[in-house]
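Support case: adenosine-5'-triphosphate complex. Customer-provided input:
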Amino acid sequence: MQRDVSSYAIAPSVKVKLLNAGFLSAADLCDLRPLQLSKEACISQEEAVEVLQAVRCEPGQERAAAGRLTALELLGREQELGTIVTFCSALDMALGGGMPVGKTTEVCGAPGVGKTQLCIQLSVDVQIPACFGGLGGKSLYIDTEGSFLVQRAVDLAQAAVEHCGLLAEDSEQQEALKGFTVETILSNLFLVRCHDYVELLAETYLLADFLAQHPGVRLVVIDSIAFSFRHDFEDLSQRTRLLNGLAQRLIQMATNHNVAVILTNQMTTKIWSGQSKLVPALGESWGHAATQRLILHWDGTHRAMTEHISRLCKGYLTKESDGAASDDLASTITRSQPS
Ligand SMILES: Nc1ncnc2c1ncn2[C@@H]1O[C@H](COP(=O)(O)OP(=O)(O)OP(=O)(O)O)[C@@H](O)[C@H]1O
Ligand SMILES: [Mg+2]
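Agent response - structure generated as follows:
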């Protein structure tokens, strides 16, 4: 922490202000909060957040930023971070073990296809104790649509606890189950309600601080990005600029704080040479925002998922619950072959 402030990848004008205010090394900065730093160094809060992120960055990440991390080291780092299991073996297999931590994933799909359900399921699954192969983490759920239903979370938590109860073999697992109850799962699931895009943007600026104060958080969900940004905009270039900035902040958040970021997006109709097609909303440039894009869709009465990265058409099928009492993804999944 004795590293000189001038050696960090910070804008030169900000460096000058930091040095003038007497911040010479990382040790002078690491305990400060963004607001305090912004006041003391006369820089904007956004600049203060960026400075603190650069300074608090882990050694491996600094080396990666400087281009001095080998692919082998990066592979080791990604394996260490782990993934969040979805409780659907075909999907986990397609995703290489589950939702990746340290990356951003966009989940798109038509209304009612199961985006929120998957996000709540992941918010529970991220808490599965390490001795069961989970991450033993916590989650932050940013709800822009008002669609987070706590009873759904209770049902999914109950199912996860029962599932782990059936798997428990040794005394370590029995002991871990004492701390893995519906109550602890719900108390480790932090909720934020944002009513419009201004509140959502503000929340993303506060995220770095929240994650620094809650280092156990391994998953951040935004359900959905589209709801806040699809309407209310006459100036589409302003929307694109705001979305680009948001995407950058989320990617930075995912890498700096080792969290999986899951964003949901709605679908819109696009007319292409006289034919209409359902495509993810928010335009083409947003299509590059997340590390990977998953599209949920209906295949008859089944839910299917397509992974839209270089490997196209990997998927899983889940059986429709036919309105049965349980909304539990785990218990309604049929283990079908990827489409
Ligand atoms: N895999 C599944 N198995 C059984 N039921 C499911 C599954 N996924 C979702 N459901 C149920 O389908 C309904 C709609 O799901 P959900 O709210 O997740 O859709 P959504 O894609 O988020 O829709 P919207 O775009 O309107 O937000 C809910 O009652 C949910 O419990
Ligand atoms: Mg939803």
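Residues 109, 111-117, 145, 147, 266, 303, 318, 321, 327, 329, 332 surround adenosine-5'-triphosphate (ligand 1) (CB under 6 Å).

Case will auto-close in a few days if no follow-up is received.
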